[in-house]
Design brief:
By secondary structure, the chain is α+β, with helices and mostly antiparallel strands. Helix content is 30%, strand content 41%.
């Protein structure tokens, strides 16, 4: 049996709830119990900032298929309602209508609240882990004999062509690649040089190369892809001892390996013949197989000038990758030719 003393010892939340609603009651209860001074203001500021951040993240990923944004939006709004009365007053009518239409036992509500909290904590841990991930170190450059005449001149080169890329995150998104791209070449120390391919704001790629007397080594490829607010840059590092994009000598076929995070890339390279191309030009085809956390295949075909810079490049790629924390099926087909390449210049199979 409950006594008058028991009733007096209860919090004021039920009385306020009868006059208003659960969210306004919770807001007034938190306001009454909030500690005065700097500590109380700081705690309130942290909750408000966290609530706004959760709502903004939910809005940013809300266009993606699936319900992932719903628990984030709810958690953020509930946090704000506990600190801002205006938000609490807007949530009360919604909560009351839902309770009338969807009766739910107290235990079920508690289980749902626990599940929602757990999902928010999981998302926060995943996002924090991704933001604090370590960038892979730049591969050490080999130090074979070289001279400045084995590397392309620094500057901007224009390529024309086109292609498409398809991004499947539950609903397919197809984007046309531009008809004109720029490739920016820079020289580093020793044998090193890089070529940055700028397609658009959503897509770019950079090759780090090393020109040696034995051929041109492919040390690292960095690919950047953006989907809406999500942005991912992946670095593929290759074995600097064997990763020849082009190779001098009689061998017409060779293999090398690369790695990206938990993904292994095995590449089979073979030399192709060329017709009607500038003196010293050579062609190569690279077949790449991705295994591990990311799976897929890619074929790259290059016609290269005597210094290793592409006169023409063709790519066919299909892989399951991740952009941020989102699994994505990515496909791309492209073909570009440098502006100063003769129209009749072409590659042919040696088989």
């Amino acid at each position: 049996m409950r006594t008058d003393h028991d009733n007096e010892s209860d919090h004021e939340v039920p009385a306020v709830e009868r006059a208003h609603g659960r969210f306004v009651a919770r807001h007034e209860y938190r306001t009454a119990r909030r500690r005065a001074g700097l500590a109380g203001r700081l705690a309130r500021a942290i909750r408000v900032v966290t609530g706004i951040a959760l709502v903004l993240i939910a809005l940013l990923i809300g266009w993606l298929p699936g319900p992932g944004f719903i628990p984030l939006a709810l958690a953020g709004t509930v946090l704000l309602a506990g600190e801002i009365r205006w938000v609490a007053e807007r949530l009360d009518p919604i909560e009351q209508r839902l309770r009338e239409r969807i009766p739910m036992p107290r235990r079920a509500r508690a289980a749902l609240a626990i599940a929602g909290t757990a999902s928010v904590v999981l998302v926060a841990v995943l996002v924090t882990t991704w933001l604090l991930r370590d960038e892979p170190p730049t591969p050490a450059l080999p130090t074979p004999s070289h001279d400045a005449g084995t590397r392309p001149a620094e500057g901007t080169y224009t390529y024309r062509g086109g292609g498409t890329e398809r991004i499947d995150v539950g609903a397919g998104i197809e984007r046309a690649l531009p008809s004109r791209i720029e490739v920016h070449v820079n020289r580093g120390d020793g044998c090193a040089w890089s070529a940055e391919y700028r397609y658009s704001r959503e897509r770019s790629m950079q090759d780090m190369m090393c020109s040696t007397t034995s051929g041109v080594l492919q040390l690292r490829t960095s690919a950047r892809i953006s989907i809406g607010p999500l942005d991912q840059t992946q670095h593929i590092d290759c074995d600097p001892r064997t990763a020849f994009r082009t190779r001098q000598g009689a061998r017409s076929e060779w293999r090398f390996s690369c790695a990206a995070d938990a993904t292994k890339v095995t590449i089979r390279a073979r030399r192709l013949d060329t017709t009607a191309c500038p003196a010293g030009a050579h062609a190569v085809e690279l077949d790449a197989t991705f295994t591990g956390s990311q799976r897929g295949t890619a074929r790259y075909r290059y016609i290269l000038d005597r210094l290793g810079l592409p006169l023409e490049l063709t790519t066919e790629l299909a892989a399951d990758i991740r952009v941020g924390l989102i699994p994505v099926t990515y496909e791309a087909q492209e073909r570009y030719r440098r502006s100063d390449t003769p129209q009749r210049c072409a590659s042919t199979s040696t088989q």
